[in-house]
Amino acid sequence: MEVAPLETATPEQAAPVLENLAAPEPANAEEGIPLDNAHFPDVAFLNSIRKVDADGNGVLSRAECEAVTRLDIRNKGITSLEGIGCFTRLTYLNCIGNSLVSL
Q1: Whose CA is closest to 76, among 58, 54, 96, 103?
Q2: Element (H, E) at 12
Q3: Pairing between strand 33-34 and 59-60?
């Protein structure tokens, strides 16, 4: 499937790209999303969001994910935002200066 550049993509063309960004659901969603390479394959992105884990247990709870409304992850060497879909209330994202090819 050919994907149009982000600024000219129709919703139908953009949908396949966006659906790949969601974090895989853990076996029990109430347990949260582990901060690991299975859920956040890009190490630079994973390291950038570790601060979101307020209790430091290595797992993002539903409350921790929902608390994130802004992410400022500029110039971190990130190539993929796979897993960002767990931040369901995200309204602001600054990812300038990374090597992203899709959003």
Answers
A1: 96
A2: helix 11-19
A3: antiparallel
Give dist(CA 22, CA 8) in Å, integer.
22
* φ/ψ of residue 33, rounded to 5: -115, 115
Task: Identify the structural domains of the chain with CATH numbers, from first to last.
Answer: 21-94 (3.80.10.10)
Tens of pLDDT, residue by residue over 52-98, are 999 999 999 999 999 999 999 999 999 999 999 999 999 999 999 99
Q: Which residue shows structure tokens 């600024």?
A: 7
Q: What is the pTM of this model?
A: 0.72
CA angle 20, 21, 23 (to 5 degrees): 105
Residue whose structure tokens are 């139908």? 12
Element (H, E) at 71: strand 70-72
Helix (H) or strand (E) holding 13: helix 11-19
